[in-house]
What does this fold into?
Amino acid sequence: MRALGGIRAIAISHPHYYSCMVEWSHAFDAPVYLHEADRQWVMRNDPGIEFWSGETRPLWDGMTLIRCGGHFEGGTVLHVAGSGALLAGDILQVAQDRDWVSFMYSYPNYIPLSEAKVDRIVAAVEPYEFDRIYGAWWDRNVRSGAKHAVRRSAERYKAAIRG
It folds into this structure.
């Protein structure tokens, strides 16, 4: 990473990924940005952790952290303006076919997210232009038409949970 220019900051989507954030922060002398709504899940406080509040946090070079909520209240995605990219982790879980996304309260226990929380996620990313979603797992990406995939996936999901 240093040979590629190092790391300026670390942004973590939600508590499932908090385990070694302090070590990464120290190794690269980089702040870790976490949404304050998930503060209770931080088990090791450190000066390198910077909590942010509100619905968005602009970074630099057109990057913006967006609080979507989801299976954690501070669930965050990263929009990279001008690139067409949304880095979503599993806040917007890219489906196996790479053409749809899904939304869950608990993936391990297959507990669905409520309709209101799905609407919140969709509304949070709606103002941003993106054509691709990079998901949490290797090669689990929506390669084109991602904004439309989010909209139609939300409608399909909500119809399914309504029965």
The first strand starts at residue 10 and ends at 11. The chain has three helices and 13 strands.
